[in-house]
Amino acid sequence: MASFTRTLPASWYCSSPLYQLERRAVFLKAWYLLGPVTRFQVVGEEVGYEVAQVSLTACRMSETPGDIKVYDGKTGLEFKAYITETGLLFSTISDEAPSFDEFFPDLKPLIGTVDFTKLPYRRSIKYEGNFNWKTMVDGYQECLHCQYTHPSFSVYYPPTFYTVYNHKNFSQHVADPKKADDGLFLYFFPNCTLNVYGGGMSSFRVCPTEKPGVTRMEFDYYHQETGEKFEEYFKFVRQVAMEDYELCEKAQENLERGIYAEGILNPVKETGVAFYQQRVLDLVCAQHEAETESTTDTHYETNNHMRQWKLVDPATS
Ligand SMILES: [Fe+2]
């Protein structure tokens, strides 16, 4: 019988020590999309971010295109940053991250198809939700929920053709192959997205707080138009975002109730979920192993989660 990929255990969505391990294993070693260069138009204006409890600031230093620095909001020390040829700014949040090319070896051809310097920045919003960061990423990485959760979105992008292509540290979502110019959806591991559709562009970051059941959502919106046309686009994309938000809060409630422990993933429609969860699992397990080798382990709860995983994982039992 074919074996199915299983989800991460529910306990991984509810545990503080597990999140701290994720922070060291995943977040401190990753690259983050801060936005297209149009987000940083004003020389000297500081744009603040917070990723996994690290404060960072991006600032355009001069009129020279691409002269943008990213630095630690507390110490002022500069972080490794990278601007792609088509104008996307990425940054790290610690020295532990590899080089941009090592992290995203095959990203450039794909983002080279869109000129990100052409879409003006319009608006940002952020708010907290009662769910784990992975609960939101789970939803983003599949579209099985789209037809019933996003009726307005599904009119434009019927889920029939929806396909996810996974690469090293990112996924491309193809909503409708016939609309090649409208509808570029990218997920950057672990928590950033870029969504070009409906005549505009949005980018959101799924920012974990120190509480595993609370996540801060941060959205940036870009559009050629202002006024009514932008507001129409904004209303449309906000509707989709709020539908996801409600779904995540409900999913998290179930994860925290202790009834659901784990499930299996659809081998065709949930490859995006399987891909990123496997990255989290591999990195967290490697980190845990490295830390327990080097110290006398006192992380009792973390050990329990790892043990729980190993007990239920046929590959290791
Ligand atoms: Fe959704």
Written account of the structure:
The protein contains 9 helices and 13 strands. It is of the alpha+beta class. The chain has a domain at 10-29 and 118-257: Naphthalene 1,2-dioxygenase Alpha Subunit, Chain A, domain 1. Strands 7-13-12-11-10-9-8 form a 7-stranded antiparallel β-sheet, with helices on one face. A 3-stranded antiparallel β-sheet has the order 1-6-5, with no helix packed on it. A 3-stranded antiparallel β-sheet has the order 2-3-4, with no helix packed on it. Helix 1 packs across helix 8 (271-294) and helix 4 (133-140) packs across helix 7. It is globular. The two termini are 18 Å apart. Mean pLDDT is 90; it is low at 311-317. The structure holds fe (ii) ion. Fe (ii) ion binds at residues 139, 145-146, 149-150, 244. It catalyses: choline + 2 reduced [2Fe-2S]-[ferredoxin] + O2 + 2 H(+) = betaine aldehyde hydrate + 2 oxidized [2Fe-2S]-[ferredoxin] + H2O. It comes from Zopfia rhizophila CBS 207.26. Catalyzes the first step of the osmoprotectant glycine betaine synthesis. One of its GO terms (biological process) is glycine betaine biosynthetic process from choline.
Structural descriptors:
317 residues; alpha+beta; Naphthalene 1,2-dioxygenase Alpha Subunit, Chain A, domain 1; seven-stranded antiparallel sheet; three-stranded antiparallel sheet; 13 strands; 25% strand; globular; binds fe (ii) ion; iron ion binding; 2 iron, 2 sulfur cluster binding; Rng_hydr_dOase-A
